[in-house]
């Protein structure tokens, strides 16, 4: 597992993490400083690009191509859930773009002394909010949570949350093949 702080959200399904070996208990955030600003050399040179396992989100604009409907909302939701928070990552593989693919668990808001902070799975939260769908492709890692992810996606779809609020939503895979 890797410990870190989420310092940037690039898309609705990937983040950049500043690695903090040993996590909070090794002094990161209270004895040792962690970066606060995206673009700071310490962030871009020493952060790890991580793709959230098991999900796909609407495609943001890349390489002069227009963004997909819902991409900005998905990015905003992931920023709300993750940006600036401590996390740990179970890395499963490296994808074709050199990103670590893993399950990212984020520390929730700090609680009173003596009560541990809860951790939540970012992939699950994005599915629950309706701003992501299950990634269907070959060699996909779901962190042994595919059935749970399917239920979360189905519930968001039934409640017409996020991308499911639009009557006809084009999957990110279909969108990429067109553009």
Question: Can you give a write-up of this model?
Answer:
The protein is of the alpha+beta class. The protein has a single domain, classed as OB fold (Dihydrolipoamide Acetyltransferase, E2P). 26% of the residues lie in helices and 26% in strands. The protein has five helices and eight strands; from the N terminus they run E-E-H-E-E-H-E-E-E-H-E-H-H. The strands form two sheets. Strands 1-2-3-6-5 form a five-stranded mixed barrel. Strands 4-8 form a two-stranded antiparallel ribbon. Helix 2 crosses helix 3 and helix 3 runs parallel beside helix 4. The longest helix is centred in the last third of the chain and has 13 residues. Its main location: membrane. Pfam families: SNase (PF00565). This is Probable endonuclease LCL3.
Instruction: Tell me the helix content.
Output: 25-40%
Note the total helix count. 5
Q: What is the number of independent domains?
A: 1
**Secondary structure category:** alpha+beta
Distance between the termini: 36 Å
Membrane topology: Single-pass membrane protein
Domain TNase-like: 1-166
Main location: membrane
Protein name: Probable endonuclease LCL3
């Amino acid at each position: 597992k890797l410990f870190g702080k989420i310092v940037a959200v690039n898309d609705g399904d990937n983040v950049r993490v500043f690695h903090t070996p040993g996590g909070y208990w090794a002094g990161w955030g209270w004895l040792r400083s962690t970066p606060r600003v995206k673009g700071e050399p310490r962030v871009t040179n020493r952060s790890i690009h991580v793709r959230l396992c098991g999900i796909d989100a609407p495609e943001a604009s890349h390489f002069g191509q227009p963004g997909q409907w819902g991409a900005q909302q998905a990015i905003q939701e992931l920023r709300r859930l993750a940006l600036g928070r401590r996390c740990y990552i179970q890395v499963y593989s490296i994808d074709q773009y050199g990103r670590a693919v893993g399950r990212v668990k984020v520390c929730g808001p700090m609680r009173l002394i003596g009560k541990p902070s809860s951790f939540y799975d970012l992939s699950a939260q994005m599915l629950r909010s309706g701003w992501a769908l299950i990634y269907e492709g070959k060699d996909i890692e779901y962190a042994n949570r595919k059935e749970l992810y399917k239920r979360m996606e189905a519930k968001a779809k039934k409640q017409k949350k996020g991308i499911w609020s639009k009557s006809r939503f084009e999957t990110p895979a279909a969108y990429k093949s067109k553009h």
